[in-house]
Structures are given as C-alpha cells and as structure tokens.
C-alpha cells in the first residue's frame, strides 16, 4: 500500500508540474484544456524517457513548440510522434542537461573491438553504433558541405583498421579519395572498372554463400571461427555518389548498358550480401526515386541523413520529413534504423590528421596476402570466369573438407596429408596473381 501510494504521489507531482508548465505557455487545445499525462516510461539504460500525452493539440503545433517545451519542461526533446490516435502524442526526451555536442573530432579510441561494428557520432545518450553483421549496408545523404562524405570516410577508416578490403567508387576523378587512399585500397573512377568490380563482387558473394551453406555457417562470423587462419575478409565498398551509378541521363547507349548492368549488380549485392561480409556504404547528394531505387531503399537498412530544405528529399531517404527540421549545425545528422529516427553529431574525420595509411600498411605487414577476395582492376590479365569458377570450386572443397579433417584423415598417414596440401598450394601458385 505504501509503494502504491508513493508511485501515485510521484505521478501526481509530475502531472501537476506538466500542467503548470503548459498553462504558463498557454499551451491548450481546441477544448481550452492542457495536455493530460497518460504515461511516463523511463529507460535507465539509454536515459531516454517516453512521455505520452492526450490532448486536442495537433502534432504540428507540438513540434512548433519544441524550443518552448524544452525550456518549460526542462527536457531535451529527441522526437515527437503521433500515437495510436490523433489525440495521443509521444515525446522521447532526456533530462534538460543532456546535450548533443556541436563539434566532435575523431579519435581512434572510438574504434570498436568487435569486428564489423563502427561508430558514426554521438547523440544525447552516447555513441551511435552500426553493426554491419546485422545491418549490412549504409546510406548517407546530405547536401553539399553537410559532411556526408566525411561520415563515409570515417566508417571506411574504422573498417580498414579492422582488416577489411576496401574499394572506393568515385566518378569525380577520385577527388574524394586521393592518392593516400590508393595506398590501402582501390579507387575506381571509370565506368568500365566499376562494372568489372561489381560483377566480381556478385561472383564473390555467390562463392561465399556457397561456402557458408556447405560449412553450416549462418554468416561470415561463424565461418571464420571454424576456419581460423583461412578467414574470409570483410569487403567494404564505398560509393561516394550513387547518382553517378544510377543516373543514365545523357549518356551514350554503350555506357547506358554498362550502367544498367552495374545497377543490377548493386541491387543483387544489397539483397544477398547480408551474411557474407560484403558491405555497401553509399553516399547521395540529391535523393530522388531514380537514384534511390526500390531495391536500394528496401535493402539498405541504415539511413544517415543531413539537413534538406526540401521535405521530399527527407521523405525519400528517411520516409519522414524530419531532415527538414534539423538545426543548421555542420555535422548534424539524423540516424534511422527501423522505426526510430535519432538526431546526432557526426565525428569530424580530418584526412590530414586522422587518415594515416602507414598505420594500415603496418597492420597488414605480417599478414599473408588475402586468399579469399581482392581484385586488381588495374591489371590487364584478369582471370577469366571459367578459370575463376574452377578455382573457386576446388578451393571451396578444400575449405569444406577441412571441417571434417579429423574424421576424413583419420586413417591417412601424415605423408599422404602433406602431399594433398602440397597439391592444393601448387594449384594456387599457378593461377594469375589477381586471385591472390
């Protein structure tokens, strides 16, 4: 009885505080009544409160009053959403002293230990993290100067530090990814090279899916635990401007055909590479339906969006108009994964200070060349498809059989096993260096 009384007193006190704040703002509905508190849910983990009110005040009026409400209620409002009916409004907020930083320089201390997990910035309650093992592709949109490309490079740096293979697609002559980036990955600046890259990635994805299936692995993480020393490398593909790949306006027929094929390959990867460790990081400056196709929108779960004056652009990227209401703070973005849209400050990744190729080269120094991925598009003597398929089949058989090596090799002598390993190594050494 005492506990019930205490809870009720706390609710009554909170309700009275809200009612007084609303009255002071003259924040009333068509019925001349202030909003009524329906529920208050506190998440001690995230420190985000969910406050539900009932009133006859339109959602648009609630949003227009955000500055006044934050001051009067002493809260930092993260979002205001419509509830189950037009009379119900749900506010997600934090304590009034919680702030989003206005400037956030990058530091390698933010790099996550878990492979495939990256951080892009901070919100009221802490870091914004993306687990590519669960949400494999990212779309970063924003107007010129918003910092969308800075986010892409920050993500790229983290994955390089984690050992990923990198491809960077930039049809603006490689301006976004200069010579320093070419030391640690391949920068693709031409349509022909891009077509080769995406075809290779689709083939590589199919190969990896087969390996996962035959080894009984659900994803690349499970596979790598089973085959220590023969792990599949994560592959990150950064596309600086999606429109350059998708917009076919004004191009000749031959180029158009290539772009159509590239679009098909990209859509295939977006759909099918969730488990294989091939991730797309896509930038877009002018979102429209021709650029962000249905396939891309449906299969790229993580959306990062800067401020857009045009609510239509916000709608295309986020499926809501919240980007239109973002404050004009450089580096301020919205993060959407699932239903929630959260405002955050992106890390400022300065190439001159933070991108140090020698750090990546040093990490790779003691590693043998990757045996399961990597394509040098600058070499002319690329392996033809038939040879690659033949190599893949033989190499896959070796990988799958290695799981059961304790059983299959039980009755073999050490000499026989050694001979089989030599045959495999000879096969690999005789193929074109591009496979390695």
TrEMBL record:
Residue intervals passing through the bilayer: none
Keywords in alphabetical order: ATP-binding, Nucleotide-binding, Plasmid
UniProt cross-references to SUPFAM superfamilies, sorted A to Z: P-loop containing nucleoside triphosphate hydrolases (SSF52540)
Top-level taxon of the source organism: Bacteria
Gene3D superfamilies: P-loop containing nucleotide triphosphate hydrolases (3.40.50.300)
Keyword ATP-binding set for record: yes
InterPro entries per record: FtsK/SpoIIIE/SftA (IPR050206), FtsK_dom (IPR002543), P-loop_NTPase (IPR027417)
PROSITE patterns found in the cross-reference section: FTSK
Name this protein carries in UniProt: FtsK/SpoIIIE DNA translocase TcpA
Gene that encodes it: tcpA
